[in-house]
Each structure stands twice: as structure tokens, then as C-alpha cells.
């Protein structure tokens, strides 16, 4: 008899594959990381360094002097005998007026022939040329034009005086006939031969539109051959004291706020000087009024003088301007602060009322970001607009409301954005130098957000 056989399929026991599970977890993590990387906004990071900004403050100033216009009192042909910008003493000959033109023609003719120069004048010219040649530097090539004008003026003065002396008898006769007149200086001073309408401008009545050099008009008095009674013959500057009015930028005015004198360099010749000054405001612009008692004669023929205000190099923590952001802070009177929570923490007592009308007084620790003479600046992390604060040992209260803005940066050392107050010492177009060691500030090598305008405080930062 055949046996009844039943075949049962063998089931293998289930074994958990740990390696496959680990691979799956890693794969999911990588997918999540890649997704987060491409969907999260990345923040560029700047590492705070110790650096220097060279302060360069170049300005053009308006020169104001005690200028007196000397007017002619007759008509005729005019000749000049003193160099522009040179000193004249009382009684020195400055110009002459020839009514019939005969003597003036002889003087003009002599000016075209340098062979009549005497040994003394030739020696003076030779010395000037030698001095310029020995001190010449290629980087100051533009000085050659000033030198050329200076030599031409010296030559013209010497030739004119020589021609006048050579016809002394003719001049004496013309003077006795009242057809020739000598204009002499009535007092000591510097002689200049231009007018520009600024002669009566002072440090009290100047205006900002006077600094528009494109509108400036200067009349050269020596270009005339004839003069009329009542015309300006020349100008005399009798005092070495003068002022230079300089509109300055806001940061320059801020740097000079507590100073009474400043070092400057004249860009024309590189000479340096220190001058007392006062600051005035004109139509919303800070204007530096330099009070000078020297160097006037070097710039007597110029209305606009280029200078550089010399500051030391500013050194400190250097950060890009793009990192700087502003944040509102509550301003709270100092007398409302006290230490609490059985610790040294500074804070305030806040009185709050819940929905059921129950009133509680709670000590709230507050981080102080900045302090003025009367107030502390705190943020809104634990305080809100409208909170009522209790004054220690008093029944007085203060309602939180007033705010002020502070400059700062977002520090991201811990992976999230924390606002830190900064004190800017100096700033140019790209970078700022900030004071090191400020309370609740930043330190060397801290990492800050490169663009502070896009950061949300306390947000998680993905840096790059």
C-alpha cells in the first residue's frame, strides 16, 4: 500500500540586514541635506580683522583776506612796476599812468628787449633759475608753469624800472606838466593785480555757492593797456592774517568736534602747517574756518586753495560697511534698574496683568547694549512696548515705549544671528574702523554676516 506523503515548503527565518538599514538612513540624511542646501538661503561670512584705514581728506578752501582795491584817479596808458604777489613798502612805485602815451610806449618797447638788463638783475634771475633747477623733481612737473610766470614777472619788473630810470628827465618833465603820474603804495602790503568780486566777503557773509569754481570770474588788471579814472588799478593786502573757509564732510566734522586746531598740507607746494579753527554751519553744511597768520603771500594771487586735512591713520577692528545694520532698542532710565534673582544680573521689575486681572511683579533680566548719561538701551527680547516698570524703593512707574536706533552687526559664531552693538571710529566708502572692547560688542576673529540688511535676528545661519 502506498504511503501518503505530504511535502511542506521550508521557510527561511527572517534576518534583519543592519547594513541595509544604515545605508537607508544615510541615504535619507544625504537627500535631506542636499534639499536643505539648495532651498536654504546662504549667508556670506566675514571674519573680523585688525586693520587700518588711511584717512584722506582733500578739500578746496575759499581764501578770505583783508583786500583793499586801489582806484586810479586819471585816464591814460598804464604800466606796472612790481611783481604780482610781491611786497611793497610805503612810497614804493606800483604803477604809472601816461596821459599822452609817449612814455608808456618807450617802457613797453624796453620790455621786449632783455639786453638792457643790468648785472644786478641778471644775477637775481640767474639765482632763481639755478635754485629751481637744483630742486626740480619730475613728479612736480606742474610747478614749471608757476616758475615760468614768476620769471616773466621778474623780467617785466626789472625791464620796466630800467626803462623808467633811463628816461628820468623826460618823466620829470611830464610829471611837472601833469601828463604823467606815478602811483605809489600808501602803506605796506602785498600787491596783486586781479579783482573777482570777493574782496568784501568775510567769514560771516560767505555763501556756499561761492565755492562753485565754474562760476568764478577773475579780472586780470595787467592785461589792460589803458585805464580810466575810477577803475581798479591794483589791490593791496595789508595784513598777513587771513582765513581759509572749507566746507567739510560730516565724518571730518565729527573727527574735529573736540579739537581747536588742525594740521593741514597745502597741495600746491607740499608745505604743512597747524592752524586754529572754528566750525560753523552754513545751510546745513559744516564749514571749517581756518585762522592763519602765515603763508598768505604764497597764495595771495589765488582765491581757491587746495589743502589736505591731516589725520593719523585710524586703526582698529575693520569691517565692511555692508555688514552694518540698525536695530531699535528701548531706552529705559537708569534708576529703574537693579540687581535681582539673587545674582549680579541687572534687570527691571515688570508689573503685568493677565487676562483674569491678576497683577504680578516679576524681575526681568535685561542685557544692556549701550548707556547714555541717563538711560540704558535694551532690546525687546524680554520686554514689550507698554510694559510698566517699577522704580526700586519708590511708587514711581515707567511705561516702556521710547526707542532709539543703534548701529551693529550680526555675529554668527554659534550658528545663529546675534546683534552686537558697534562704535564706529572712522568710515570710508567701503570699510569702517570700529572701537575694540565695547560692551556687548564684537572681538577680533569673530564671524559676522557680510550683508547685515538681510539677516533676521536669532535665525539659524547657513554660512558659506
Describe what you observe in this structure.
The protein has 464 residues and is of the alpha+beta class. The chain is 19% helix and 37% strand. The chain is built from six helices and 34 strands. It has helices at 18-39, 102-110, 119-135, 143-166, 168-176, 250-255; strands at 42-43, 45-47, 49-53, 57-64, 67-71, 76-80, 86-88, 93-98, 180-184, 189-192, 194-195, 219-220, 226-227, 232-237, 242-247, 261-266, 272-282, 285-292, 304-310, 314-320, 325-333, 338-340, 345-353, 359-365, 368-371, 375-378, 388-390, 397-399, 403-411, 418-421, 424-427, 431-434, 447-449, 462-463. The chain has a six-stranded antiparallel barrel with strand order 4-15-18-17-16-19. Strands 25-26-21-29-30 form a five-stranded antiparallel β-sheet, with no helix packed on it. A hairpin with a 6-residue loop joins β27 (388-390) and β28. It starts with 17 loop residues before the first helix and ends with a strand. The model has no long low-confidence stretch (mean pLDDT 84).
Main β sheet profile: 6 strands, antiparallel, barrel
Give the number of helices: 6
Backbone shape: elongated
**Using only CA atoms, what is the Rg?**
40 Å
Q: Which structural class is indicated by helix and strand composition?
A: alpha+beta
Average pLDDT metric: 84
Q: Residue ranges: pLDDT <50 for 5 or more in a row? A: none
Strand order of the largest sheet: 4-15-18-17-16-19
Q: In whole angstroms, how far apart are the ends?
A: 85 Å
Q: What share of residues are in beta strands?
A: 35-45%
How many E strands? 34
- Percent helix: 10-25%
Amino acid at each position: 500500500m502506498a504511503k501518503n506523503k505530504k511535502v511542506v515548503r521550508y521557510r527561511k527565518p527572517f534576518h534583519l540586514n543592519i547594513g541595509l538599514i544604515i545605508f537607508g538612513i544615510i541615504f535619507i540624511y544625504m537627500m535631506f541635506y542636499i534639499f536643505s542646501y539648495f532651498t536654504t538661503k546662504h549667508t556670506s561670512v566675514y571674519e573680523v580683522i585688525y586693520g587700518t584705514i588711511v584717512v584722506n581728506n582733500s578739500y578746496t578752501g575759499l581764501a578770505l583776506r583783508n583786500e583793499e582795491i586801489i582806484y586810479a584817479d586819471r585816464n591814460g596808458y598804464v604800466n606796472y612796476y612790481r611783481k604780482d604777489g610781491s611786497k611793497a613798502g610805503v612810497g614804493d612805485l606800483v604803477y604809472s599812468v601816461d596821459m599822452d602815451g609817449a612814455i608808456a610806449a618807450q617802457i613797453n618797447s624796453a620790455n621786449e628787449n632783455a639786453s638792457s638788463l643790468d648785472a644786478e638783475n641778471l644775477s637775481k634771475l640767474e639765482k632763481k633759475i639755478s635754485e629751481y633747477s637744483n630742486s626740480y623733481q619730475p613728479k612736480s612737473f606742474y610747478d614749471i608753469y608757476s616758475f615760468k610766470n614768476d620769471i616773466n614777472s621778474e623780467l617785466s619788473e626789472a625791464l620796466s624800472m630800467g626803462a623808467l630810470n633811463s628816461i628820468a628827465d623826460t618823466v620829470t618833465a611830464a610829471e611837472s606838466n601833469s601828463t604823467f603820474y606815478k602811483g605809489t603804495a600808501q602803506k605796506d602790503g602785498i600787491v596783486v593785480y586781479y579783482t573777482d568780486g570777493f574782496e568784501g566777503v568775510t567769514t560771516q557773509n560767505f555763501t556756499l555757492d561761492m565755492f562753485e569754481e565754474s562760476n568764478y570770474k577773475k579780472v586780470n588788471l595787467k592785461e589792460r593797456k589803458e585805464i580810466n579814472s575810477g577803475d581798479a588799478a591794483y589791490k593791496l593786502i595789508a595784513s598777513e592774517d587771513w582765513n581759509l573757509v572749507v566746507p567739510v564732510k560730516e565724518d571730518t566734522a565729527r573727527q574735529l568736534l573736540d579739537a581747536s586746531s588742525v594740521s593741514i598740507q597745502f597741495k600746491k607746494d607740499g608745505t604743512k602747517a597747524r592752524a586754529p579753527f572754528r566750525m560753523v554751519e552754513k545751510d546745513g553744511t559744516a564749514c571749517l574756518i581756518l585762522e592763519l597768520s602765515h603763508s598768505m603771500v604764497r597764495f595771495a594771487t589765488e582765491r581757491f586753495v587746495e589743502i589736505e586735512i591731516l589725520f593719523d591713520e585710524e586703526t582698529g577692528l575693520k569691517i565692511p560697511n555692508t555688514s552694518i545694520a540698525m536695530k531699535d532698542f528701548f531706552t529705559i532710565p537708569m534708576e529703574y534698574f537693579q540687581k535681582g534673582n539673587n545674582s549680579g544680573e541687572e534687570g527691571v521689575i515688570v508689573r503685568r496683568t493677565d487676562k483674569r486681572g491678576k497683577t504680578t511683579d516679576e524681575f526681568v533680566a535685561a542685557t544692556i547694549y549701550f548707556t547714555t548719561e541717563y538711560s540704558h538701551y535694551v532690546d525687546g527680547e524680554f520686554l514689550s512696548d507698554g510694559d510698566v516698570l517699577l522704580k526700586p524703593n519708590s511708587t514711581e512707574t515707567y511705561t516702556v515705549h521710547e526707542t532709539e536706533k543703534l548701529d551693529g552687526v550680526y555675529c554668527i559664531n554659534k550658528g545663529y544671528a546675534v546683534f552686537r552693538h558697534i562704535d564706529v571710529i572712522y568710515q570710508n566708502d567701503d570699510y569702517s574702523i570700529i572701537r575694540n572692547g565695547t560692551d556687548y560688542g564684537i572681538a577680533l576673529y569673530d564671524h559676522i554676516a557680510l550683508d547685515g540688511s538681510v539677516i533676521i535676528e536669532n535665525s539659524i545661519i547657513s554660512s558659506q
